[in-house]
Design brief:
Number of strands: 5
Number of helices: 3
Order of helices and strands: HEEHEHEE
Radius of gyration: 16 Å
Largest sheet: 5 strands, mixed
Structural class: alpha+beta
C-alpha cells in the first residue's frame, strides 16, 4: 500500500509583534513597500508584492508574487491567498510598480483588484489596498474608491 505524505506548515515570526510596522493609511503602505522593490529595476521591470497583516494592521511579512517585463506582470490570486492563509494574515495589500511612471491604474489593474477583493471576502481576508508605486509617488486604490 502506498503511503500518503503528511503536509506540515510552519510560521516563524522574527521579533515581537510590537516591533512590526503598523499601517493606518496608504502613505504608511507606500513607505513600507517602497524599499521592497529593487532600486535597480523599479523603473524597468514590473513587480507585484503581497503584504500580509495581522488583526492590528501590523505587517507580518511580504512576498514577491511575480516579476514581469516593462509593461506588465502576472498576479495569480491562488498564489496570493496560499501565502496569506499560510501566514495567518487577517488582511492583505498588493503593490506593484509601473516602470512608465504613470500612476493611473489600468483596466487590468482594476479587474485584478476586484477579483482579489472578492476572493478575500470569501476567505475573511480583507484587501486593504492595492498600490501602484513609482520611486516618486504612489496611487492607493482605497483612496480613490477603486476597491
Amino acid at each position: 500500500m502506498k503511503s500518503i505524505p503528511e503536509i506540515k506548515l510552519s510560521l516563524v515570526l522574527e521579533g515581537t509583534t510590537d516591533e512590526l510596522v503598523q499601517v493606518t493609511c496608504s502613505q504608511d503602505f507606500y513607505d513600507a513597500v517602497l524599499p521592497m522593490f529593487d532600486v535597480h529595476t523599479i523603473d524597468y521591470i514590473e513587480e507585484m508584492i503581497l503584504v500580509c497583516l495581522n488583526r492590528a494592521n501590523r505587517i507580518i511579512g511580504f512576498f514577491k508574487v511575480s516579476k514581469g517585463g516593462q509593461t506588465g506582470t502576472v498576479c495569480d490570486p491562488k498564489v496570493v491567498f496560499s501565502i496569506a492563509l499560510n501566514c495567518g494574515a487577517c488582511s492583505i495589500a498588493l503593490a506593484h510598480n509601473h516602470p512608465s511612471g504613470n500612476l493611473k491604474p489600468s483596466q487590468a489593474d482594476l479587474k485584478l483588484t476586484q477579483k482579489v477583493k472578492a476572493a478575500g471576502k470569501l476567505l475573511d481576508i480583507i484587501l486593504m489596498d492595492h498600490l501602484i508605486v513609482t520611486r516618486n509617488g504612489y496611487h492607493g486604490m482605497a483612496d480613490y474608491g477603486e476597491l
